[in-house]
Design goal:
Blueprint: H1 3-9, E1 11-12, H2 27-41, H3 52-55, E2 58-62, E3 68-69, E4 72-77, H4 86-95, H5 97-105, E5 114-118, E6 126-131, H6 140-160, E7 165-168, H7 180-198, E8 204-209, H8 214-224, H9 229-235, E9 264-269, E10 275-280, H10 291-303, E11 310-315, H11 327-341, E12 345-351, H12 355-368, E13 376-379, H13 382-385, H14 398-408
Parallel strand pairs: 1-3, 2-8, 4-6, 4-7, 7-8, 10-11, 11-12, 12-13
Antiparallel strand pairs: 5-6, 9-10
Helix pairs in contact: 2-9, 6-7, 6-14, 7-8, 10-11
InterPro entries: CRAL-TRIO_dom, CRAL-TRIO_dom_sf, Macro_dom, Macro_dom-like, Macro_GDAP2
Domain Macro: 45-225
Region (Disordered): 15-35
């Protein structure tokens, strides 16, 4: 492949028309279609109001994401980063052989995670690799949560790396069984919420699509990025009932249980009769809360628990980059655990650990907190956890149950302790 020829194909994102400049092709016809419903909607403002400043950041581009000249483009792949889909193939072709070597060093990528490499021969400086979920109706909530994590983690990485522009492909391909329209709703609302809450430094987000995908994207964009107050009102009846929480994350109210919206809660007892404290990593909004106050709250909650023997369960399931605690906070936390809470802690069950979390845990238990190493148990499946703590003793978020069933198979009751 001729490098000069390839470079002549590259497209400057700054030359592309932003969404707020693109006229509504339906025009007055759309307004007439929904006139009858507007009166009843006046008291119910759209959850996605007209924002010209956000629309100026959005671009819908029909073409190959690999050819875009921006800070980063997104590659959709599988867990081993070896998927052969048209997007990955084009990115590998244009980036050159160095990218394939770099991908091997990443040791794969879990569903919902995002990892970064250089762009090599691409016009884009970086490539953000993510893995969309395989969709099964039985585990719909888990698939929605995973897809949300893909888009959220890409945006978080772009923010952390001070990227001016990022170009998304369609993350969950038809090859993985995710309906395009359902996936597009999650993509649009997640990006919209991120730009509202955290995206001041991000100047442009491009959605790169094919001829087949463009009609769906063009149809749904006005729901989340209306270009006028009139379009906002006209789109309101079409917005789904489920629009997620304040970050766009999927919420299923009828399946919520008391732990689902809380980072931590006091539960029952393990098989030795010890109090169990449960923490949910994905529910810790690290970027949105005052971590000093969170530390004080943690101490307040733990004080009365730690006067006698206890165990802790930490669900790391589908935890994203924005949920990871920074090293300084971890250092303070471990110092407190070392001095105050370690004595009566009998077991710390780390459920669904990632490679990164295993390395961090090993480092801290080996060098920072003495006497903790033998108390920490990495638990790959709920089946293992239930040999020590009966399932009826703890409330487990639906997304954890569905993730475990999808990855590890259905739970089979067990009665002997293995941890």
């Amino acid at each position: 492949m001729d490098p000069l020829g390839a470079r002549s194909q590259f497209v400057e994102v700054q030359t592309l028309s932003t969404w707020e400049r693109q006229p509504d092709p339906e025009g007055e016809e759309t307004e007439k279609e929904y006139t009858d419903s507007l009166v009843s909607q006046e008291a119910f403002p759209s959850p996605f109001p007209y924002r010209e400043d956000i629309n100026r950041k959005i671009v819908l581009y029909n073409g190959d994401v690999a050819l875009l000249n921006c800070t980063a483009i997104v590659n959709t792949s599988n867990e081993t980063l070896t998927d052969k889909n048209p997007i990955s193939e084009s990115i590998l072709l244009h980036a050159g052989p160095e990218l394939r070597d770099e991908l091997l060093k990443l040791n794969g990528c879990r569903t919902g995670e995002a990892k970064m490499t250089k762009g090599f021969n691409l016009a884009a400086r970086f490539i953000i690799h993510t893995v969309g979920p395989k969709y099964k109706a039985k585990y719909r909530t888990a698939a929605e949560s995973s897809l949300y994590s893909c888009y959220r983690n890409v945006m978080q990485l772009a923010k952390e790396q001070a990227m001016a522009s990022v170009a998304f492909c369609v993350v969950s391909t038809t090859k993985r069984g995710y309906a395009l329209e359902d996936a597009t709703h999650i993509a649009f609302r997640t990006v919209r919420r991120f730009l509202e809450n955290h995206g001041k430094s991000i100047e442009m987000v491009v959605f790169a699509v094919t001829d087949m995908e463009e009609p769906t994207y063009r149809k749904l964009l006005p729901l989340y990025y209306p270009r006028s107050e009139e379009e906002e009102r006209a789109s309101l009846p079409l917005i789904p009932a489920d629009i997620g929480n304040s970050e766009g994350e999927p919420v299923v109210p009828e399946r919520q249980i008391r732990i689902a919206e809380k980072p931590g809660s006091l539960e029952g007892v393990d098989m030795c009769g010890r109090t169990v404290m449960v923490l949910v990593g994905r529910n810790i909004p690290v970027t949105l809360i005052d971590m000093e106050k969170a530390l004080l709250y943690f101490i307040h909650v733990m004080d009365h628990i730690t006067v006698k023997e206890y165990a802790m369960v930490y669900f790391h399931t589908l935890t994203g980059e924005h949920n990871h605690l920074d090293p300084e906070f971890l250092k303070k936390l471990y110092e407190i655990v070392d001095a105050k809470f370690k004595k009566n802690l009998r077991a710390f069950y780390f459920v669904h650990p990632s490679f990164r979390s295993k390395v961090s845990t090993w480092f801290f238990t080996r060098f920072s907190v003495s006497g903790m190493k033998e108390k920490v148990h990495h638990v790959e499946t709920l089946q293992q956890l239930f040999t020590c703590i009966l399932p009826e003793q703890i409330d487990i978020p639906p997304f954890v149950l569905e993730y475990d069933a999808r990855v590890n198979g259905a739970y089979r009751p067990a009665h002997s302790s293995s941890l």
